[in-house]
Amino acid sequence: MEQILGRALEHDEEVSIMAFSPHEAPSGEARQALARQLKDRITRTAERVRDVSTEEQEAAIDEAVNHVRSQQK
Fold it and tell me: Cα dist. 25→31, 32, 33, 38 in Å?
């Protein structure tokens, strides 16, 4: 795997492979609707954490990542 990546893996790195079936990208109104939904979702998420400091947000993300990584071993 390191040969394919062109570098050595770090001790805390993992490699995963996923396969997806190809499909047509949405276009026209469907694409616009999906873009609006995504923007609305991002806005709602931002509103929920607007009073949370950057440090607290980063600590929560670090905690979640560490939890997931510890469950995978």
Answer: 8, 12, 13, 15
